[in-house]
Amino acid sequence: MNKKDFKKLIKNLPENPSVMARERYFNSAVLIPIIKIDKKYYLLFQKRAKNIRQGGDICFPGGGYEKEDKSFKHTALREIDEELGIKKKDIKIFGQLDSYVAPIGALVEPFVARVKKRALKKMKVDKNEVEKTFLIPIDFFKKNPPVEYTLKYEVHPYTIDENGEKVVLFPVEELGLPKTYHKPWGHRRHKVWVYNYKGEIIWGLTAVIINDLLKKF
């Protein structure tokens, strides 16, 4: 590195640092729809259709960022329109929670929004993606903390195929890495929060978002 390169390095440091190697993640956005009905505030949830990825899970409207999207906010608005038929004119976005990097390799941008009550009557649910929608009072989450569980994650440098043969994914021995990495490593424990509302189980990413939202008031 010479003096010119060093100056270029300093010049290119971001003023507002974001997420390193963002392109390696599944980039997505969700909308957290808050609806006021009879002076009470509710969150609007959807249950994913059984035949799609993560089918049966309860979540907020959202999905992957597409190259046509102008921003992650645009992604969130597009997804709620595609999934529930709720239009931009019935939505007011107030702000965004912190970005969340999920253990599964997804990077999620959550937006907090007020949805007009009239939008509920005009919803056109895409049954290919959504089994059903329902409302839960925000007070429920304030009064009922989630049950906490623990999962364990490990990094595997190899896998075993259907014939019982070892398939090397990362050649740790060939690369001469320490023996620690010749077998699964990490053993990282990950907290999982679970809410149970009338038999509907809300967990994973959605529970993380709810938990962070509740810290704001």
From TrEMBL:
Keywords: Hydrolase, Magnesium, Manganese, Metal-binding. Residues 25-159 form the Nudix hydrolase domain. CDD domains: NUDIX_CoAse_Nudt7 (cd03426). InterPro entries: CoAse (IPR045121), NUDIX_hydrolase-like_dom_sf (IPR015797), NUDIX_hydrolase_dom (IPR000086). The keyword Transmembrane does not apply. GO terms for molecular function: coenzyme A diphosphatase activity; metal ion binding. Its cofactor is Mn(2+); Mg(2+). Coiled coil: none annotated. This is Coenzyme A pyrophosphatase.
